[in-house]
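Q: Here's a chain of 285 amino acids. Please give me its 3D structure as tokens.
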Amino acid sequence: MSQIDRLSSLLERFRVRAHLFYAGVLCGTTHFAAQPGRGFLHVLRRGEMVVTHRARSGLARRVKVDEPSLLFYPRPLAHDFHNAPTDGSDFVCASLDFDGGSDHPLTRALPALVLLPLRRVDGLTQSLALLFSETEQVRCGHRLLANRLFDVVLLQLLRWLLDHSDEAELPAGLLTGLADPRLARVLVSLHENPGESWSLERMAQQAAMSRSAFAARFRSVIGETPADYLVRWRLAIALSQLRDGRSVKAIADDLGYRNASALSRVFAQRVGLSPRSWLTQQRGD
């Protein structure tokens, strides 16, 4: 697996942008509101606290955090930090903007909350030392550098999740597939070359498996058929490129569809709107 870069092709095409918004001590109750397309990455540097979530959020109503930890919310989800009223806890916090919002592949592939002690992630100490250094005083470009360091911390967290997928209790999907040595080879190839002709036989050859064994394992680990995954990956790219102003014809050519009409039919079947209607709705929103 060390020879395969499982994340670059994904994150180069669907970016996540970190924005530092707080560094210091939090006292009492702090509310973090849910905003479309936005997640959070909190670093509890010192202290302990209780985190609460709303009813029907899918998470425990009350979670105690009693050691330095990362708290990663990949989807919009309101949460509250409860610290001591005077001697609170020390934090560095960033918001995360996911390209495409809920259409970003990672937002579907991750749990609603990843809570991980800092001591568990190899290599994180050095990154956090630089991050804390940049947030402790105002220097030229410190906010930009802190944003990039948060990007590094996020990448290290994603690496940990891929290497500990069972322990992390990831839902079936993209990350569980990338954590599988044989399926990862196929997924990376699909991500890097979505417009090529991908038959089931060709995918199975990439995984060094028979067609039947590959199809069964893919569905078991990722939760959908290889063909459905490929269509969904291509549509995620199409949505992103439509937002960027590319024509349906140009997108269809890149993604291996015969013509714009073929892409539009698949788009309407999966999204429920034509590309033009979807883009008009997005601009209205």
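Q: Can you summarize the key feature?
A: Residues 142-163 form the longest helix (22 residues).
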